[in-house]
Amino acid sequence: MSAPAGAALSNTTFGGTATGQLGTVTVNDERGVVPAPWTATVTSTAFTTGAGGANQSIPNSDVEYWSGSATSTNGSGTFTPGQATAAAAVTLSSAQTGGGGANNVSWNPTVIVNVPSTVAAAQYTGTITHSVA
């Protein structure tokens, strides 16, 4: 699995949303077995800042992940995106069921961070982790 090392989200105001696409995430399944199911998952940390003062964290429950459509470059099976629209929780990104042989699947997810009106004004960073099993 490969995913971008970083991405910048849009600026926003207190109580608004910061959004942005992460870039292409790809699963390369070279097992070549039949069937060859797999599930990709994604998790997020809280978004934090080193700025002084209180309220320096946006909880990961305020982070949404929209996988969008998945594109297969080879292989067979059914490729199901995790969410057809933005999801309230960061969970499933894509799954492949049935089929067989090697397959490659890619998607360009959108991350949405709902910024509480109570956080400190600053630049926040968080970690989005992709995995496949």
What does this molecule look like?
The protein has a four-stranded antiparallel sheet with strand order 8-9-3-12, with no helix packed on it. The protein has a three-stranded antiparallel sheet with strand order 1-11-6, with no helix packed on it. A three-stranded antiparallel sheet has the order 2-10-7, with no helix packed on it. The radius of gyration is 17 Å and the shape is elongated. By secondary structure, it is mainly β. The protein has no helices and twelve strands. Strand 4 and strand 5 form a beta hairpin.
Q: Return the string of H and E elements.
A: EEEEEEEEEEEE
Strand order of the largest sheet: 8-9-3-12
Mean pLDDT: 79
Helix % is: under 10%
Task: Write down the Rg.
Answer: 17 Å
In total, the number of strands is: 12
The main β sheet shows up as: 4 strands, antiparallel
Question: Beta-strand level of the residues, as a percent range?
Answer: 35-45%
Shape: elongated
Total helical elements? 0
- Ranges where pLDDT stays below 50 over 5 or more residues in a row are 86-94
Distance between the termini: 10 Å
> By helix and strand content, what is the structural category?
mainly beta
